[in-house]
Amino acid sequence: LFGFGAGVMLAACSFSLIIPGLAAAKDNGADAWGAGGIIGGSILLGGLALLAMERLLPHEHFIKGVEGGPSPRTLRRTWLFVFAIALHNLPEGLAIGVAYGGTSPVQAGTLTAGIAIQDVPEGLVVAVALLAAGYRRWLAVLLGMASGLVEP
């Protein structure tokens, strides 16, 4: 499911964000090189923002363990995992907002559907991790749905 979700997200980024972004930059007066520079620069700025968040905010990987900024000792490992999923969902929510603000509603709906399909397994993983940590079922399901299906 994660491989399928990754493929959907790659296609959504290419066909629903990058290509329409190039067309919009050309429509606003940029030549082909200028449009490529704008979109390429935007992708680099987004990547740098994600890199900064990844370095500053505490989160946990399955293999590497806890990473990021200073993590309070009272912060449980499960919550670090929930925060990592939420951190991952931030750019997805921004992409949905940009898509609805700048492209056709059909393309924005396609992007939203692709992201939602990809987020279902993520929400399930969060819910299962919270259940394994001893949280009540209703809370685990609620937080799993919030982290996997609701974008900021």
Task: Give the integer mean of the pLDDT values.
Answer: 78
Number of DSSP-assigned strands? 2
Biggest sheet strand order reads 1-2
Cα-based radius of gyration, to the nearest Å: 18 Å
Low-confidence stretches: none
Number of individual domains: 1
Provide key terms for this protein.
single chain; 152 residues; mainly alpha; two-stranded antiparallel ribbon; 5 helices
Report on this structure.
It is a single chain. With 152 residues, this protein is mainly alpha-helical. The chain has one domain (2-149). The chain is built from five helices and two strands. The chain has helices at residues 2-27, 32-56, 77-102, 105-132, 137-149; strands spanning 59-61, 65-67. It is globular and about 55 Å long. 20% of the residues are buried. The model has no long low-confidence stretch (mean pLDDT 78).
List the helices and strands and how they pair.
Blueprint: H1 2-27, H2 32-56, E1 59-61, E2 65-67, H3 77-102, H4 105-132, H5 137-149
Helix pairs in contact: 1-2, 1-3, 1-4, 3-4, 4-5
Quickly describe the structure.
The protein has 152 residues and is mostly helical. It is 78% helix and 4% strand. Helix 1 (2-27) packs across helix 2 (32-56), helix 1 (2-27) packs antiparallel against helix 4 and helix 4 (105-132) runs antiparallel to helix 5.
